[in-house]
Every structure is written in C-alpha cells, then in structure tokens.
Amino acid sequence: MSPHVRNAPDPPTTDPVWTPILTDLRATALDCLQTSFALLADHANGAGSHLALGARYGFYTRERDGLVTVEATSDDRAAEAVDLLGLRVEGRWVQLDGRQVRRLCGPGQPLYVTADAYDLPWCPYHGHERMRHSFLVASADAGEVTVVDAYHNDTAWGAARPGVWRLPTARFDAALAGGAHTLAVAAHPAPAIDVPAMLAGNADRARRARPEIAGYLARMGATLDTVAGLHRLVLDVWLLARARDLHEQWLATVAPDAAAALADQGPRWQQLATRSYVALRRAQAGRPAAPELADALGALIADHLAALESIAGPATPAGGDGVRAAVLGALGDTLHLDGSELRATDVLRELPGFDSFRLVDVIDRVERRLGVEVPATALSAADLRDVGSLCAMFGAAAGGAR
User: Fold this and answer.
1) Which backbone phi and psi does 127 adopt, to 5 degrees?
2) Long-range contacts of range 332-341, CB-CB < 8 Å, 24 or more positions apart?
3) What b/e sequence results for 120-142 when a residue is b if at least 16 CB atoms lie within 10 Å of its CB, and e otherwise?
4) Which of 113, 128, 174, 354 is 20 to 30 A from 294 (CA-CA)?
5) At how many degrees (to 10) do helices 356-370 and 320-335 cross?
6) Going by C-beta distance under 8 Å and a sequence separation of 6 or more, which residues neighbour residue 238?
7) Distance in angstroms (rounded) separating the CA atoms of residues 151 and 29
8) Per-residue confidence (pLDDT) for residue 341, from 0 to 100
9) 375 or 238: whose pLDDT is higher?
C-alpha cells in the first residue's frame, strides 16, 4: 500500500514459527474471530487442524443494534474452538490495557486477544472503522511485542493479509488503550469427528433451521430500504459465504465425494456479495435500495440446505428404501451402469452418458415404478443435482402420495 495513504497499516515481518502456519491457513474461509483460534489449533496439532471449525452446520441469529444478524460473538467462536479443535480456555480477562496483556504473556504461551480494529496499526481498519478484531500476542519482552494476525480480506481501505508484526511496547500499549479482551488458551489433541454422524447431524440441523431462516429473511428484507440494513446484509452475506466455504474445505479433506455437492456454490455467493456491496454504496449516495437481495440470499441458503441434506443421503420416510432402489435402478437401466455402486454424492451430470434427455427417461421410469408424479415446481436445479437429491425429491413425492 502506498505510504501516502492515511493510516496505512504497518508492514508485516516474518517469523520462523508463525509464518509457515500462516501460509497453510485457509484464512479466506475464516472470520476475524476464528482466525486466531485457527492459528492456535494448527500450532498445536499441525497444518489443517483448523478446518474442523467447518465441520458443524448451524444457523443462529441474534439482535445487534436493533437489527437481526448471523454474526457470531467471541464467546460463540470460543465454544466452537473448544468443541471442534480441542482448545481449552483456561483464563479470561476483560478490558485489559497493553501493559496488563504483556504481563500475562509468558514464554511459549500465546494469548488470544480481541480489541477494536480502529486502534490497531497493522489493520486497514485503523482510523476508519470500529469492529471487534482478534489476534495473537505471541511474545512480549521489555521492548517489543510480537503480534500474529491471520485475517484475510479486501477492505475499502486496502487489503488485510495474514502476517506477523513486531511493535515497540509503547505502540502496542497505545493500540490497546481502549481495552482488550484476553484469553489464555491451552491446546489438547483435537477430538475425533465421526464424519457420517456429523453429516447426518448437519442434515437434521439444516431441516430444523428452515423456520428460523424464513423469519430471518423476512426481517432482513424489511430493512433493505435503509443504509443500516444494507450494511448488515453485506456483513451477513460475507459471513455466510465464508462459513459455507469452510464447510466445503473441511469436507474435501474427510469426504471428497461429498464436497462435490457444494462445489458450484462459491462463485454465486461471491456474486451476491458484490451485488450487496454495490447496493450499499448506492444507498449511501441516496439512490434506491435493492429489496430483491433478500430473495437472492434465500435462494442461496436453500441450495446450501439442499446440499447438506443430500450429502447425508435422503431422509427416510416410509418407503425410503423403495424410493432409493427405484432411483438407482432407473439410473442403472438408463445409463447402463451398476446402480448398486452409485453413491448419494455422485453428481448426475458427471455420470457416463448422462444428459437432459436421459434425465427425463430416469424421471419417467421412477414415476412409473413408484406410481407417483413429481410436481413441476419440484424439478429445481438443487433437486436434480446428484443422486441423493434425486432420491430426496422422489421421497417427498412418494410421501405426499400416501
């Protein structure tokens, strides 16, 4: 960044311990509170350990400044780190100044710290925007403090990139003059995740989240004629997109075939993030808002939920085994494949010989075998993506016919 930019962030340095960890971190899929827990996990248990933060799906809303949001708190992120990464919070202090934080930092005992990004000289937000931001205090001595910050984002004031900064104690103390929340975190071996059980739980949580999501979208949509509402939408889209990306990256390490169910969603989330930000900038200039963005967000969330359900396999209402057998049999007969070898996560368009004409043949065969007719409104891209979603679509139709 040019040195003429007001409040330009301090340049980073390198560190033999932390720079390699930062290099391997999937920081583009983490928010600014997760990054420092991710660093601690990888420092203790090896590269990639932090991806377990993406294992569990959940949709939770809260009130902030009179608006509904999906933004997590630092306590939420700490609870996730304990459950999924094996970290343990062994000390907690609020509103410490820089000197107090330095005194807590012992050799080899990095501290998890949150403070106002407006005051942090290595952040692009320095002097521009107030928000809670996390970093590690890796070491502190009489003259210098080593700060590790893994945040990765492009901001209106420049790029935030993971790095290590060494600050004179006076400058560090000035950055924390507004008070810092500090955690002493101990690392334990990461808990083993039962992947099939986690995927089944995600599917169940996705189904149960639908009423809360509908309420959230309605409340969010009602605020999109205001700058504050659009500002909140921009942040929420960013957070939801990163959470989805983190889940996909975790899946790629534990169930690569299942990750394919999410593979085409990332660019669409990026597109919505851009549209939302453009709408915010126009509203700030006094131009009309874009209420249709709530519907666009709802469509992306619906596709995400459908993928989570298909990854775990279709729900099993009465006749579930019969539905699956009918779908696999129709696919096998139409495409001349061994249906018993097909998996729920197999993407239909990647099956040998598959095309839109074969899909119509498959639908006709399954409808005849089950004695049902799928409503035209159910023939969506999400329902026709992979074997699992096709089974779920016919399962819903068979259940409704009874």
Assistant:
1) 75, 5
2) 333/365, 334/358, 334/361, 334/362, 334/365
3) bbbbbbbeeeeeebbbbbbbbee
4) 128
5) 140
6) 273
7) 10
8) 76
9) 238
Angle at 259 (CA atoms; ends 345, 323), nearest 5 degrees: 20
Q: Which of 304, 294, 234 is nearest to 268 (CA)?
A: 304
Q: Rounded CA gap, 279 and 282, in Å?
A: 5
d(CA 8, CA 203): 45
Mapping DSSP onto H, E and C, the string for the chain reads CCCCCCCCCCCCECCCCHHHHHHHCCHHHCCCCHHHHHHHHHHHHCCCHHHHHHCCCCCCCEEECCEEECCCCHHHHHHHHHHHHCEEEEEEEEEECHHHHHHHCCCCCCEEEEEEHHHCCCCCCCCCCCCEEEEEEEEECCCEEEEEECCCEEECCEEECCEEEEEEHHHHHHHCCCCEEEEEEEECCCCCCCHHHHHHHHHHHHHHHHHHHHHHHHHHHCCCCCHHHHHHHHHHHHHHHHHHHHHHHHHHHHCHHHHHHHCCCHHHHHHHHHHHHHHHHHHHCCCCCCCCHHHHHHHHHHHHHHHHHHHCCCCCCCCHHHHHHHHHHHHHHHHCCCHHHCCCCCEHHHCCCCCHHHHHHHHHHHHHHHCCCCCHHHCCCCCCCEHHHHHHHHHHHHHHHC
Angle, helices 195-221 vs 293-311, to 10°: value is 170
Residue in 271, 213, 191 with CA at minimum distance from that of residue 237: 271
Contact 235, 70 (CB under 8 A): no
Contact 398, 323 (CB under 8 A): yes
Tokens of 392: 């779920």
Q: What is the pTM of this model?
A: 0.76
Pairing between β-strand 163-168 and β-strand 132-140 as defined by DSSP bridges: unpaired
Give residue-wise pLDDT tens across range 165-222: 999 999 999 999 999 999 999 988 888 888 888 898 899 889 999 999 999 999 999 9
Question: How far is 38 from 303, CA to CA, in rounded Å?
Answer: 28
Q: Please tell me the distance from the alpha carbon of residue 212 to that of residue 59, in angstroms, as a whole number.
A: 8
Mean pLDDT across 331-359 = 82
CA angle 333/336/342 to nearest 5° reads 85
Tell me phi and psi for residue 194, to 5 degrees.
Answer: -75, 100
